[in-house]
Amino acid sequence: MEAREYDLAIIGGGIVGCSLFSEAVLKGVKAVLLEADNDVSVLATKANSGIIHSGYDPMPDSKMARFNVRGNQIYPALCKRLNVDFMACGSLTVAPKEGREKLQMLLERGKKNGVPNLRIVEKAELFAMEPNLADGIEVGLFAPSAGVVSPFNVCIALAEEGVINGGTLLTNFAVDKIEKIKSESGESKIQSEDKKIQSGDNKIQAEINKSGGNKNQDKYIIQSGDKQVVAKYVVNCAGANANEVNALVGIKPYPMNFVKGEYILSDKTLVNFINHPIFPLPSEITKGIIVNVTTFGNILFGPTAIECDKDDTSVDINGINYIKEKVALSVKNANFKKTIKLFAGVRVKSGKDFVVERDTKNNHFYYALGICSPGLTAAPAIAEYFIEMLEQDGIQTKKITAKNRPAYINTQAMDKNSLNELIKKNPAYGRIICRCEEISEGEIIDALNSPLHPYTIDAIKRRVRPTMGRCQGSFCIPKLIKIFAEQRKIKQEQVTIDGKTSELLVSNIKEGGFYEK
Ligand SMILES: Cc1cc2nc3c(=O)[nH]c(=O)nc-3n(C[C@H](O)[C@H](O)[C@H](O)COP(=O)(O)OP(=O)(O)OC[C@H]3O[C@@H](n4cnc5c(N)ncnc54)[C@H](O)[C@@H]3O)c2cc1C
For residue 62, what pLDDT is reported? Predict the structure, then answer.
């Protein structure tokens, strides 16, 4: 195992950490992204509404407002650069006639925040834009700069872009210890650690770069069990665990609470049901139950807002009933028989604003905390802000010739002739594995060989969608397990849904294994 030295270590591979990782690498910074799980985009970033909010909702002069509006500006070009979909559909906030005043207030707030082209839409135009609105709806606020993305596609693409351009991603690296070292005079802690390691006192083999760097510059040894890296600058983007990571360098905990959002996801047959994300009037604490379109063509209803424990992603019947009840106030004819999945994500809140800080006691230590909604939208702007701080604090950036992150082959989006040509060259693209989403074996193998190397069925799902259709994997999982095991040269019993203890098979019954065990 190696203890390499980096300019920048980023802790946490959600959308905030991945945005910063790619931004830093593209600026020539030697960066490492440390993620506790076996893949990026595993917590809040994988389970949210995917809306790139316009920015009329956050309070003016807050970090939330600033990063939301700037993030919204960045997204269209970012998605183009990353080769991922950005649905430039705008958003509608709708209300009965008593809601007009509040919509007007949101419009004024949006203008203060710098949101472009917001306007009030009257009933006739509103129903022309959205024929399935509920009968009581009279007026709306149209925010044309809002959009929709697949949050996990963007997050994975950012991490891939970082890796393709020379950044390092270390997964299964749950940071559990951070040691600050001052390289004052003479031998630094790192150097003595290095000697200790080389003399065999420690299993870890050091590759610490002792040249370069200011002698008075603090450095950090960041550990996960017996693995470690060294970095001059550290940014904590650990989401729900940000307080725990801060505590490793003695930073007092910020107030933090967790708010679960449950969802109902429909299949794609409702695709023309709505054309924009449709919001009700927001409350002090939530944007309310949204009727939303996904980039893949599903309709998404939710989320609820329920105080919970930080890892509680359970779905409750009360939550589902609440969603159905509230949806009926915004749209008519929502067909919940088309439901294919219920799921939940957990928002991490710290008071009313985002906390994005440079620590005052630990030189070159920074953190993002309480990044609740609109954190997906804000993430590229938060990354930009961190880069500004890092540059002010002396991190060296330089121009690099960046490589583009190529899109995965998507046979669904190809015309017949091109697809036939592709299948002639590689018949695996003609063998459909996931019938619902029509994903071929070739696409699954491409995902397995993609820059971040997915190690679980869920990780493949987040890249190319097998198991995301109507049957939710009932038909394709056995085939996926087989392909996965063959490609990774492991036993089928070792293939997992999401790592940990989620093996799908116990043993081969025909060999008597199950009964023997
Ligand atoms: C229900 C819901 C709906 C939302 N809707 C929207 C929306 O429509 N639009 C929008 O803009 N925003 C939305 N958001 C907000 C958005 O999803 C979050 O703000 C964003 O995903 C937060 O990203 P993050 O990187 O801070 O955290 P996370 O995605 O949670 O990532 C943190 C990462 O840190 C890792 N980690 C934790 N501890 C350690 C450690 N010790 N060492 C290493 N790694 C560690 C975790 O494994 C995780 O991968 C929504 C959120 C929810 C829950």
Answer: 98
Domains present along the chain, CATH in parentheses: 4-44+153-254+353-392 (3.50.50.60), 91-144+257-349 (3.30.9.10), 411-494 (1.10.10)
Contact present, 61 and 156 (Cβ < 8 Å) = no
Closest CA to 329 of 132, 44, 102: 132
Instruction: Please list, in sequence order, all residues whose beta carbon lies within 8 angstroms of the beta carbon of residue 264, skipping any fewer than 6 positions away.
Output: 300, 301, 302, 320, 323, 324, 336, 339, 342
What is the rounded distance in angstroms from the CA atom of residue 155 to the CA atom of residue 248?
Answer: 26
How many A from CA of 210 to the centre of ligand 1? 35
Q: Is 60 helix (H, G, I), strand (E, B) or coil?
A: coil
Q: How far does residue 11's CA lie from ligand 1's centre (Å)?
A: 12
- Rounded CA-CA distance 37/458 in Å is 12
Full DSSP string of 374-391: THHHHHHHHHHHHHHHHH
d(CA 14, CA 34): 10
What DSSP state is assigned to residue 169?
E
* CB burial of residue 498 (10 Å; 0-12, 13-18, 19+): middle
d(CA 366, CA 235): 5
> Is the shortest distance between the CB of 109 and ligand 1 below 6 Å?
no
Q: Is 276 one of the annotated active-site residues of the chain?
A: no
Tens digits of residue pLDDT in 234-286: 999 999 999 999 999 999 999 999 999 999 999 999 878 999 999 999 887 78
Ligand 1 and 280: CB distance under 6 A: no
- Contact 377 CB / ligand 1 (< 6 Å): yes
Minimal CA–CA distance to 428: which of 412, 441, 416?
441
DSSP per residue over 327-395, as a string? Answer: HHHHBS---GGGEEEEEEEEEEE-TTS-EEEE-SSSTTEEEEE---TTHHHHHHHHHHHHHHHHHHTT-
Residue type, 266: S
CB-CB neighbours of 256 under 10 Å: 17
Look at residue 316 and give its three-state secondary structure: coil
∠ Cα 250 380 463 (to 5°): 100
The pLDDT value recorded for residue 124 is: 98
- Count other Cβ atoms within 10 Å, centred on residue 130: 21
Total count of residues recorded for the chain = 517
Instruction: State if residue 483 touches ligand 1 by the CB under 6 angstroms criterion.
Output: no
pLDDT in tens, 386-413: 999 999 999 999 999 999 999 899 999 9
Specify whether the CB–CB gap between 342 and 320 falls below 8 A: yes
Question: Which tens digit of pLDDT belongs to each residue from 417-457?
Answer: 999 999 999 999 999 999 999 999 999 999 999 999 999 99
